[in-house]
Amino acid sequence: MTAEDKTLVMYGDGVRDTARRMLPKLPDACFVPAGAGELRAAVKEGIAQVVLVAGMDEQLALLDDDGVLESITFYMDAGAALTAEVAAAPTARHVYELWEAAGKLGPCGRELCRRTAGELERLAAEAAGSAASPVAAQVVLVDAAGERMVGMFGRMAR
């Protein structure tokens, strides 16, 4: 099994081409739409690394945690007023815009990626039936247009 065979790249809606540009040396077979089912299957096949390239909506779907964006805003010391605005925001896109306008998109985006990477590793450990994840996760947050990276967090394959 080659290093390429041990990497799974999951991508969010409309960002397949962006993911391909970010990781041009990997073969097409490594790229799949984002989903926990894809990750579980790949863990059973022995992958060592997962890379998620996605917007906020796909990351939030994996986290499945109400209030996570408010929690991130508070945790990153963005202030009570912005935290309250985020809590009242109707969509993740609106939160993205609030973070960007407040100059907090970078740190809040990285924290979202950190939490998403942790969840991917937790899901991988669960799929492997072990306490520790056999997979290193990297997460890239892309802008609202799905064209450029605005945040990233991850570990290298073990």
* Basic shape: globular
String of helices and strands: EHEHEHHHHHEE
Through-space gap between termini = 15 Å
Uncertain residue segments: none
Share of helical residues: 40-55%
Overall SS class: alpha/beta
The quaternary state of the protein chains shown equals: single chain
Sheet bearing the most strands, described?
A: 5 strands, mixed
**How many whole angstroms does the radius of gyration measure?**
16 Å
The overall pLDDT average reads 93
Q: How do the strands of the widest beta sheet line up side by side?
A: 2-1-3-4-5
Strand content: 15-25%
The beta-strand count equals: 5
Instruction: Count the DSSP helices.
Output: 7
Topology at a glance:
Layout: E1 7-11, H1 16-22, E2 31-33, H2 36-44, E3 49-54, H3 56-63, H4 68-75, H5 80-88, H6 92-101, H7 105-128, E4 136-142, E5 149-154
Parallel strand pairs: 1-2, 1-3, 3-4
Antiparallel strand pairs: 4-5
Helix pairs in contact: 2-7, 3-7, 4-5
